[in-house]
Structure to design on (565 residues):
């Protein structure tokens, strides 16, 4: 009995320790996991034309799209884990796999094009024969995943993001076979961090970073924020440069932001300072930064593009852009500092830069809410501080809170030529109706553009330019819009050919890309116009154009999918 009691005490101690292992930090090799079961919605196989079919899933609008390769549906699932977790592993087991046969090939994805490159926009989709002429499964696996650190979906804490791309449909091109997983189970496992990397209760909420010359005016803003319950302090760039190390001034500032997160629990960062002068100041010192002539430096990416048009110079490149996301993207997976130079060659965020290795795997998730007041003088700082304090201190008239007036324009020269060819020669004379309707990637349809015309070979052709889509847009955002411009209500398709080129006043940028030209030659009417989705980032839409005779029978139908504007 004396031996049993000590053993019982030891057992109790060991069992009580499991609760501590599951809850605390500072303990190694403690694996956690999450499991998610998926049910795949109905598979749709739709003939697009005499060559291709479209593959889609009901209630899913995400697709695997790589230039020249088959467009196939994907399901994206995101997991939010604790900040700083390690050894993340993802397993996905497809279940209830069914086989389908198709007689036509799956439609290939178009190439990604620069917004300004008009010459390439009208180019045909080119298949990647390494995929289409083989019978290996595409994609080669059922899933892929990537990880990163950043703010949670709600923005209230820092987490580790695990994004899983599940490919429920795999395609075998030469045999015309589809394998479709009706169900799947995802398991994500990870090790808890061995310490708590960030403070639970922050001493401060907001830090303002600015040069000393702005400090006096900004102190009023610091005092105001503190009076309103936002714990704030000011840190000058001069202090940062003297106290922190880094490859350059932007990196020193980023290391300070990291320190502010880990020391004071900072959630918000406000940079105050822009280019010192728009005339004599030099915005970029080298490939990575603008510091010398900036009150608060900027980080430049090195993402190269070659916009031949409208510059039409093969030697002219877009050599990267300013990105304040650099300052907000403090951590990568594991809670490690994200320097935006993963290969360590001293060129930050490089892609397609001649002679430079691409930087792959950059995190790009913001870890703080960061903004910049790009003030160029003390006077501008005073003005904006006064406005902020006045706005936040005095009661406002609430009548305008839910009202906004938007003025917008699109000057990217990226309107595609729909170039839909309707051959009327086999058709008898009579009255016909042309319909056009657009759809956005979310599956929403817009109003139809309807034009009634007459096919009468006893008369001369009479066509007119028509551009009135503004009459059908009543709000922003709004439904996707289709607009036919190359034929108008009551026009006649007769016994003569007719062409007309609208002026710039009638059709913006038509001189650069003839998206609005009227053409009726040898009995073929070219139906031209626009398709767009009036909402933020709504630059992609698909258009259906069809024609009916007097009996309502469809005599012509064509689609233009994933067009950009």
């Amino acid at each position: 009995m004396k031996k049993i009691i000590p053993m019982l005490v030891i057992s109790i101690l060991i069992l009580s320790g499991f609760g501590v292992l599951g809850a605390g930090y500072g303990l190694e090799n403690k694996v956690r996991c999450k499991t998610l079961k998926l049910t795949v919605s109905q598979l749709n196989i739709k003939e697009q034309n005499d060559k291709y079919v479209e593959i889609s899933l009901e209630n899913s609008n995400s697709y695997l799209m790589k230039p020249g390769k088959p467009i196939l549906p994907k399901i994206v699932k995101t997991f939010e884990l604790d900040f700083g977790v390690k050894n993340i592993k993802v397993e996905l087991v497809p279940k209830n796999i069914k086989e389908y046969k198709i007689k036509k090939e799956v439609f290939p994805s178009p190439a990604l094009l620069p917004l300004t490159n008009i010459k390439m926009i009208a180019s045909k989709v080119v298949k990647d024969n390494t995929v289409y002429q083989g019978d290996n499964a595409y994609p080669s696996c059922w899933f892929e995943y990537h990880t990163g650190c950043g703010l949670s979906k709600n923005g209230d804490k820092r987490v580790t993001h695990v994004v899983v791309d599940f490919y429920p449909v795999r395609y075998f091109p030469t045999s015309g076979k589809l394998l479709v997983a009706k169900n799947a189970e995802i398991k994500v496992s990870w090790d808890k961090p061995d310490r708590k990397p960030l403070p639970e209760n922050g001493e401060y909420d907001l830090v303002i970073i600015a040069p000393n010359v702005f400090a006096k005016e900004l102190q009023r803003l610091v005092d105001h924020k503190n009076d309103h319950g936002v714990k704030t302090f000011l840190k000058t760039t001069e202090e940062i440069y003297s106290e922190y190390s880094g490859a350059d001034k932007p990196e020193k500032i980023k290391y300070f932001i990291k320190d502010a997160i880990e020391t004071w629990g900072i959630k918000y960062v406000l940079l105050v300072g822009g280019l010192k002068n728009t005339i004599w100041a030099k915005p970029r010192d080298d490939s990575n930064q603008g510091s010398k002539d900036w009150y608060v430096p900027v980080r430049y990416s090195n993402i190269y593009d070659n916009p031949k048009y409208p510059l039409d110079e093969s030697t002219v490149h877009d050599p990267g852009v300013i990105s304040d996301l650099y300052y907000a993207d403090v951590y990568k997976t594991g809670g490690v500092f994200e320097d935006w130079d993963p290969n360590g060659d001293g060129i930050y965020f490089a892609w397609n830069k001649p002679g430079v290795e691409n930087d792959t795997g950059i995190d790009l998730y913001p870890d703080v809410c960061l903004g910049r007041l790009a003030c160029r003088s003390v006077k501008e700082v005073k003005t904006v501080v006064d406005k902020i304090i006045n706005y936040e201190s005095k009661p406002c008239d609430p009548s305008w809170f839910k009202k906004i007036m938007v003025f917008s324009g699109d000057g990217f020269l990226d309107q595609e030529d729909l170039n839909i060819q309707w051959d009327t020669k086999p058709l008898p004379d009579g009255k016909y109706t042309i319909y056009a309707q657009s759809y956005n990637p979310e599956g929403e349809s817009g109003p139809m553009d309807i034009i009634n015309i007459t096919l009468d070979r006893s008369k001369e052709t009479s066509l007119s330019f028509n551009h009135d889509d503004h009459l059908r847009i009543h709000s922003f955002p709004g439904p996707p819009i289709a607009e036919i411009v190359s034929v108008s209500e009551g026009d006649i398709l007769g016994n003569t050919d007719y062409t007309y080129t609208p002026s710039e006043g009638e059709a913006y940028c038509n001189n650069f890309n003839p998206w609005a030209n009227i053409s009726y030659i040898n009995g073929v009417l070219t139906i031209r116009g626009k398709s767009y989705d009036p909402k933020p980032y709504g630059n992609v839409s698909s258009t259906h154009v069809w024609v009916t005779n007097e009996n309502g029978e469809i005599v012509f139908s064509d689609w233009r999918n994933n067009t950009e504007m």
Summary: Confidence is low (pLDDT under 50) at residues 1-27, 115-123, 308-313. The chain is about 15% helix and 35% strand. The CA atoms of residues 292 and 440 lie 45 Å apart. The first strand starts at residue 31 and ends at 39.
